[in-house]
Design goal:
The protein has no helices and 36 strands. By secondary structure, it is mainly β. The strands form 8 sheets. Strands 1, 2, 31, 32, 33, 34, 35 and 36 form an 8-stranded antiparallel sheet that branches. The chain has a 4-stranded antiparallel sheet with strand order 5-4-3-30, with no helix packed on it. Strands 6-7-8-9 form a 4-stranded antiparallel sheet, with no helix packed on it.
């Protein structure tokens, strides 16, 4: 059947990113009025920090060990590791517009207890996550939560054979399946990399981790532009301090790419967070230890095409010692800057929020700015998976312009969108509810097929376009 193809120019509505002031949101596991953690908002432009919520234990949970997410309804969702009616954590919703906190469910030992990572929203609109304990075997569960109906369902009971005690966050790959890593269990008791099929509700152990290929993964996997999944472990392999690895979901192949080392001046060691793929197509991460000052931590870049590892921030002590031991994940915001948190700060303060400007090619002159110090009352002690996110009031910016001025040509027709552009682009496709349907990286051109009829948001390097698919 012949496809109808047309260029979206004046007919195309282009949504300019960054129409709203950039706001970072996050959580700490301790500090606040009750020393049980807080939800906070931080404005990098003004350095204004606002504590939005204090966790208090039984009523609304305590000690969140993961991160917030912004779902397609514009609300923020997260979990706590402790507190709630059963003192094994809660799942909650926070409305950033009305500053309203709502506990959605109390975890329990039967259906899952003590979640450690973060939840994700999958393509079916449901939220998915794991717990570190509870379930049939006491070794944690994989669960589904429907935000529309407030319905919770335990989908998988982890066990010693297939992997147990997960502390990771799940991710959804381009094949629609969820992937994650357990901290323990599997053939070697060093954890397993697993796959969960949403369509058939089936769990499959794909790889058994062991010392010689890395073990002890606490973050999530990330899918790079080559279609492979990448992650890091905190232990094992050549020096015993972790690896950066690649997993091919097509060939079911695991390859160790980099050994982290504790040698003074090393490439960093003991990573506990996750990698991210930035707008330049490179992977970035941080280690809480390593660098020329021994234990202060590094920020690194990894090129999945050339398998090249580069330290970008070589020891946090080199930048005044105002924040050391970066923990959790980096986040790249819509203006290209990177942000993160450190576990420790100056004068026995507990942590900092930092900004890294990646545009300076000289690592020792790269701009690393410590923007905020946690002092206890405003939160302290971010943990492994406490990371920042960038939040907007609608999920997608709404500043409209009516012409195509950025050398991007868009075509659409029956079930597809095609984009032609100069250079490289991170490409994201959303429905109008703000639900992420596809995320990839491309050079010069990309075609997204098998789309249903309707209106979509295509984002490329921070600029978003409304496109009609017939």
């Amino acid at each position: 059947m012949k496809k109808l193809i047309f260029i979206i120019c004046s007919m195309l509505i282009t949504l300019a990113s960054n129409a709203q002031t950039k706001q970072l949101w996050g959580m700490t596991s301790r500090g606040g009025s009750n020393n049980m953690g807080v939800i906070f908002q931080f404005d990098p432009a003004t350095s204004i920090f606002t504590k939005k919520f204090d966790f208090d234990g039984v009523a609304n949970g305590a000690m969140p060990y993961g991160s917030l997410i912004q779902a397609s309804d514009g609300k923020l969702y997260g979990m706590t590791n402790q507190g709630g009616a059963n003192d094994v954590g809660v799942l909650f919703q926070y409305d950033p517009t009305t500053s309203t906190f709502t506990k959605k469910l109390d975890f329990n030992t039967s259906n899952g207890a003590n979640p450690w990572g973060s939840i994700i929203q999958a393509s079916d609109g449901n939220l998915y996550g794991t717990t570190n304990y509870g379930g049939l075997n006491g070794a944690g569960v994989l669960f589904k939560y429907d935000p529309a109906t407030s319905t919770y369902a335990k989908m998988v009971d982890f066990n010693d054979t297939n992997g147990d005690y997960p502390q990771c966050s799940l991710m959804q790959a381009s094949n629609g399946k969820l992937y994650g890593i357990t901290t323990y269990g599997g053939k070697n008791r060093d954890g397993s990399l697993f796959e969960y099929n949403l369509g058939s509700n089936t769990y499959s152990k794909m790889i058994d981790l062991f010392y010689l290929n890395g073990y002890g993964s606490y973050g999530s996997l990330v899918q790079a532009s080559d279609g492979k999944l990448y992650g890091v472990t905190g232990g094992g392999a050549g020096y015993g301090y972790g690896v950066l690895f690649q997993y091919d979901p097509v060939s079911i192949t695991y390859i160790k790419k980099i050994d982290f080392s504790n040698i003074l001046g090393s490439n960093g060691y003991g990573p506990v967070g996750s990698l991210i793929q930035a707008s330049d197509g490179e992977l970035y991460g941080a280690t809480p230890s390593g660098g020329p000052s021994g234990s202060s931590g590094v920020i690194f870049q990894y090129n999945p095409v050339s398998s090249t590892y580069t330290k970008k921030i070589d020891g946090f002590y080199n930048y005044g010692g105002y924040g050391i031991w970066p923990i959790g994940n980096l986040v790249q915001t819509s203006d290209g800057m990177f942000y993160g948190m450190t576990e420790d700060g100056p004068n026995s303060l507990s942590a900092t929020i930092f900004q890294w400007d990646p545009y300076n090619a000289n690592p020792y002159n790269a701009k690393l700015t410590f923007m905020l110090y946690f002092i206890g009352t405003n939160g302290k002690s971010p943990t492994t998976n406490n990371s920042l996110i960038e939040v907007t009031s609608t999920g997608i910016s709404t500043d409209i312009k009516n012409n195509n001025t950025d050398n991007t040509k868009l075509f659409s027709g029956k079930s597809f969108i095609r984009a032609e552009f100069d250079g490289n682009a991170n490409v994201e496709v959303y429905n109008l509810s703000g639900l992420l349907l596809k995320q990839t990286h491309a050079t010069n051109t990309i075609t997204i097929d098998n789309l249903n009829t309707g209106l979509y948001i295509l984002k490329m390097n921070g600029t978003a376009y409304k496109v009609v698919v017939e």
